[in-house]
Every structure is written in structure tokens, then in C-alpha cells.
Amino acid sequence: MQSLRSSSLTVILILALGIFIFAAYAGAESSDAGTPGEGKCADCHAGAADEIQAAGSRHRSVPCGGCHIGPHQKGAHQIQKCNRCHPQTKRAHFKLDNCRGCHRNPHTPLHISFKDIKGACVACHAEQVAQLRDYKSRHSAVECSTCHDVHRKVPQCTRCHKPHSAAMDASECRKCHRAHRPNIVTYADDVPSGDCGACHAKAFDLLVAGNTRHKTFACAFCHRQKHRMVPSCQGCHGSPHPEGIMAKFRTCDDCHKIAHDLNNWPETGQKSAQKEARTE
């Protein structure tokens, strides 16, 4: 009887010790105190650890057990939901469903691939989507992923559009055009006149061939900041003629043609203007 009790106690002790060792091992494996690549998980999951170290963003500082809870069971840990660390109340983006629709691999969360999901883009990129809506162009009719097929990828405009001239390359497109409102052309004061001449060749050629002071100014000096803005001659020249002449010839181009091709009056015109001035 005593021997039976001793045997039973031994069995119980062995079972208890086994349970303790299993629990300790499982707990160590699930908590994995080191960051990915440093703990026991990397012994079997070196590929995942390498991915996190290379492109894991903030996940690089999270122990494996921060997301993979519980003991390893038949090839998979229990995986926590994303909103455990990214609460839905923090930002509008986190209120979206199906995180894995874009963030397909949690080990590389910023490597995002997607298709036709403008609704997800607007959560973080509201300004760009508003520009597409408010400034209608062909870009407004396509999905964000048509151009940005990988998150944060900025494609070259020349992938779809031909440059205005052979001398222009893709880097120059953004001097005048913004992708989300391409028809609103803006430019800096120092944009080269040659860039303007790519579209406005006739005006540019006339200006360069002329022999007036206008030839020395960049296009952006007169057409400042806003595309197709036509400045008033008086802005620089004031009222250079007597009132009688200004009354008879209502606009400057009655005599001077266009600003890109200023035309001096013929001698008969000069005499007429002088006579008009004397009668004042």
C-alpha cells in the first residue's frame, strides 16, 4: 500500500514538473523578450525576423510575443488584431475595415499594395483627394492606385504624358503642374523662358527675335505666378502719352501690336500723334 502511494506521488510530481516546464517554455516562446531577430522565434522564423529588421518600421521594436500570443500550435500562433495597438479612436484611417487588404504582410507594414481603394486613401490623404474633386481633370476620373500602385510611390509624369518638348524631362513637369490639379498651372518667378516656349513657341520666338527691352525679361516677369495672366501695360509703363492720344487710341496694341512683337509707329503715325498733342 505504501509502495502504491509512493508510485502515485511520483507520477503526480512528474506530471506537475512536465506541466511547469511546458508552461515556462511556452511563456518564454510567446513573450520572446528580445526584439525580432534576437529571441528564440528567429531560430525557426529567420525569414520573418529579417523582413521586420529590413522594413518593419515601428514593428522592429516590438517583441514577437507582442503580436503572436500564446504557445506555438501546429504552425501558427494566435495573432492579435491590429486595433490592439492601433486603436480605432486614434485616427480616421484606423477605423477602416480589413487592414490586411493593404498591409498584406504585418512584418513589412509599409510595403502596401492595393487596387481601386480611393476610400482608404482619403482617410490619410484628404487634401489630395479634395484637389482631384475640386479641380476636374482626367486625373479625377482614375483611381489613386492607377498612379500609386505601391504606397508612397510617386510615378514619373512621362509614364503617361509626353513632354512638351524633346528638351524637357520628367523632373521638369512639376515646375508647373501638380498631379492632383494638373490643369491649374503654377510656376516660380525663375522658371526658364525656354520652358514656356515649349508650349508657347510663337510668342517665345517673336520675343527672342525682337529688339526691345521686353526681350531681356523672363516670361514669368510679366506673366507672374498665374498661367494665362495677361498684365496691363500701365503696370510698368504708366500713361506714357498725352491724354488726347490715349483717348483716341484706347488700347496700347492699337499701335504697338502685341507685347511679344512691339511695332514702332511709322513716320506718318508719329506726326499724327504730335499734331494731336499740340491741339491739347
Strand and helix layout:
Layout: H1 2-31, H2 41-44, H3 46-55, E1 68-73, E2 76-79, H4 118-122, H5 126-134, H6 144-147, H7 193-197, H8 201-209, H9 219-222, H10 234-237, H11 243-248, H12 253-256, E3 257-258, E4 261-262, H13 267-278
Antiparallel strand pairs: 1-2, 3-4
Structure, explained:
The protein is 38% helix and 5% strand. Strand 1 (68-73) and strand 2 (76-79) form a beta hairpin. The strands form two sheets. Strands 1-2 form a two-stranded antiparallel ribbon. By secondary structure, it is mainly alpha-helical. The radius of gyration is 37 Å and the shape is elongated. It is built from 13 helices and four strands.
Keywords:
disordered C terminus, two-stranded antiparallel sheet, 280 residues, two-stranded antiparallel ribbon, mainly alpha, 13 helices, elongated
Q: How would you write the strand order of the largest sheet?
A: 1-2
Helix amount: 25-40%
Q: Gyration radius, to the nearest Å?
A: 37 Å
- Total of DSSP H or I helical runs spanning 4+ residues: 13
What are the secondary-structure elements, in order, as H or E?
A: HHHEEHHHHHHHHHEEH
The biggest sheet amounts to:
2 strands, antiparallel
Distance between the termini: 142 Å
Mean pLDDT: 76
Number of strands: 4
Assembly type of the chains comes to: single chain
Structural class: mainly alpha
Shape: elongated
Strand content: 5-15%
Q: Could you name the ranges where pLDDT drops below 50 across 5 or more consecutive residues?
A: 16-33, 266-280
